[in-house]
Structure formats: structure tokens, C-alpha cells
Write a structure and sequence with these properties.
- This protein has five helices and eight strands, in the order βααββαβαβββαβ.
- With 185 residues, it is an alpha/beta fold.
- It has a single domain, classed as 3-Layer(aba) Sandwich (Rossmann fold).
- A six-stranded parallel beta sheet has the order 3-2-1-4-5-8.
- It is globular, with a radius of gyration of 15 Å.
Length: 185
């Protein structure tokens, strides 16, 4: 069993909201605006913001597509993590940075819902963090499964929002809330 973290220190974690990641994202502009709202509210409340950025062979570090999407950028001194795997925790210094910040609760936003957001959410819970998924601040793209089958992005987003409401981990709080509803204090 994971060590349940005591305390009430939140960190807003913005995962992979990058130009190439969200170029075909469902309602990406609206979601980006919601993330920007969340970032502004977190900063105003004195809640740390941590930024995660994905890289791989088709999205090279430093390229235009690797940059954060328009309107989103880390402020001086905010944690910035680069990753190569779906979970923001795998082979990154994220957990050490969260410990340094005294984090006990992660407020999660970003992209892609069905890959990096889902795996980061589960990894956070498995490591003993409370989790609040910003239900209106994550997105993904439609996926063509072949043979006339499509996995629609809206359904994937709705699925994770519903799933998070029903997840139970001992000693942890797991919830999905809108940016307007979430408390950062």
C-alpha cells in the first residue's frame, strides 16, 4: 500500500499541453483557456504550479511543436519536468520536486486524457497523493481504431471524469471538479 501523504498542500500539475499534442485536440482552445484560468487562480492563491512536457522522436525537445500551447508558460521558478513516458512520474524528478514542495494533493490538467493524464492520475493515487482532476481542463483527440471504428475524444474525456468520481483508494481523496469549482487554498 502507498504511504498516504498527510497535510493539505496542493500543487497544480499541467501535463503535456503542447502545440503538437493538442493540435487536433477536442475543444483544445477552450481547454487551454481553462488551464490558463487554473494557473492564474493557483498562482493567486500561492499554490505551486508544476509543468510537464513530453518529448519523443516525432516531437523533439526545443522544436516548435514541443513548446507549450499559446497562452501557457511557466513563470520563473516554477517546476518544469521533461518526460519520455506517459506517466509524469516515470523516470522523472517529479516526485522529488513534489516532496520539496510539500505536496499532498495534485490538481491535474492537460493532455492527452487517455494516455498521459490517465496514467499520471493513477500514478499519483498509487503514490499516496490526493487527486483532483480538472474535468474541464483536459483533452485528447479522436482515434481511428480502423474498420470504421472511432474512439471519440469527448467520450474519452467524459469517461475519465466519471471514472475519477468513483475511484476509491484507502486514505485518499479522488475527485473531478471544474476549474470554477476547485479550491486552491
Amino acid at each position: 500500500m502507498a504511504t498516504v501523504r498527510t497535510g493539505s498542500r496542493s500543487v497544480l500539475l499541467v501535463v503535456d499541453f503542447q502545440v503538437d499534442v493538442v493540435k487536433d485536440g477536442w475543444q483544445a482552445e477552450r481547454v487551454g483557456a481553462r488551464i490558463a484560468q487554473a494557473v492564474a487562480r493557483a498562482r493567486e492563491a500561492g499554490v505551486p504550479v508544476a509543468w510537464v512536457r513530453h518529448e519523443h522522436d516525432e516531437m523533439v525537445r526545443g522544436s516548435a511543436g514541443w513548446q507549450y500551447a499559446a497562452g501557457l508558460a511557466p513563470a520563473d521558478g516554477e517546476v518544469c519536468i521533461d518526460k519520455k513516458y506517459n506517466s509524469a512520474f516515470d523516470e522523472t524528478p517529479l516526485e522529488a520536486e513534489l516532496a520539496r514542495l510539500g505536496a499532498t494533493r495534485l490538481v491535474l490538467a492537460g493532455a492527452m486524457t487517455n494516455f498521459c493524464i490517465r496514467s499520471t492520475a493513477y500514478a499519483a493515487l498509487e503514490r499516496g497523493y490526493d487527486l483532483t482532476l480538472l474535468e474541464d481542463a483536459h483533452t485528447t483527440s479522436d482515434i481511428d481504431l480502423g474498420k470504421g471504428n472511432m474512439l471519440l475524444a469527448k467520450g474519452v474525456v467524459d469517461d475519465l471524469n466519471a471514472t475519477v468520481q468513483w475511484l476509491e483508494y484507502p486514505g485518499r481523496v479522488c475527485q473531478a471538479k471544474s476549474v470554477a469549482e476547485v479550491g486552491f487554498a
